[in-house]
Specification:
13 helices; about 50% helix; mainly alpha; about 5% strand; about 270 residues; two-stranded parallel sheet; globular; single chain; two-stranded parallel ribbon
Length: about 270
């Protein structure tokens, strides 16, 4: 959109919830957007800002109390399995079985920020608490909640909703593409290297962060081969249904949306 600026490297960048970045300060963060050319909206996001709302919401409020927020909520059962496949693809998840990975999370074996961010499949689906947390810090009309199903089935209509929320030209025709097809690494060694990023301090100083992130994204795309998504057993879907039955009820009451299609989900 001509009224929106967003550096691709700042998509899914955890500045406001990862202390190793947040402690660098807001000036360091705003330097990541040095190519801004006066567009009305500056875009930034991280998929787990919602999950880390206790830390993220007050920091965002302090950074800009007038900002506008967007949250896309996906069926939590579907989201959990998709997150596991993504973690396997990126090399963050070493456990070969989705159900065993769930058990590992529920056993409390995730402690580092990276593990909690990348390997929490069940807890990140409890949206109602996260939405309520953000509403404690921002006016409800600052947060636009979209449903993934609507975004997928009517991307043009969803874009218009977003444009209206951001008070930008809603007549702009967006180019709609699908970017996140399922796949697995061609080389697990290379994927693990990309996961950890550049460790050498000299190289980190010579190559700007935005450039490093873009190169990592490109290398991951080249190293990924598309494949058929593994089929999940019915018993595991039922287990996910049991996890989220009450959560879906709570979320319906909070956001005032019909989420009946999320119950007893099967792909």
């Amino acid at each position: 959109h001509p009224e929106v600026f967003g550096d691709p490297a700042m998509k899914d960048f955890p500045f406001f919830c990862d202390a190793s970045y947040f402690n660098k300060g807001s000036d360091w963060f705003t330097e990541r957007f040095s190519n801004w050319n006066g567009e009305k909206i500056i875009l930034h996001g991280y998929v787990h800002y919602l999950s880390f709302g206790e830390e993220t919401a007050p920091r965002l409020k302090a950074f800009n109390p007038d900002l506008k927020l967007l949250a896309v909520l996906r069926n939590p059962a579907e989201r959990a399995y998709s997150a596991y496949l993504q973690a396997r693809k990126t090399g963050h998840e070493p456990i070969m079985s989705f159900e065993e990975a769930i058990d590992n999370e529920l056993a409390g074996n995730l402690s580092s920020f990276k593990d909690i961010a990348n390997r929490s499949y069940i807890s990140h689906g409890y949206y109602s608490h996260s939405i309520s947390t953000f509403w404690k810090h921002f006016d409800p009309d600052q947060l636009k909640v979209l449903l993934y199903d609507n975004l997928k089935n009517d991307p043009v209509g969803s874009c218009i909703e977003v444009f209206e929320h951001l008070s930008i030209d809603k007549n702009f025709t967006a180019k709609i593409t699908s970017l996140n097809r399922y796949g697995m690494p061609r080389s697990r060694w290379l994927q693990n290297l990309l996961k950890d990023g550049i460790k050498w301090s000299v190289a980190r100083e010579l190559v700007p962060l935005n450039t490093r992130i873009r190169l990592r994204q490109l290398a991951r795309a080249i190293n990924t081969k598309t494949d058929e998504k593994p089929v999940l057993e019915t018993s595991i879907w039922q287990r996910l249904d049991d996890f989220y039955k009450s959560e879906i009820d709570r979320l319906e009451n909070i956001i005032g949306r019909d989420l009946s299609s999320w119950r007893n989900y099967r792909p």
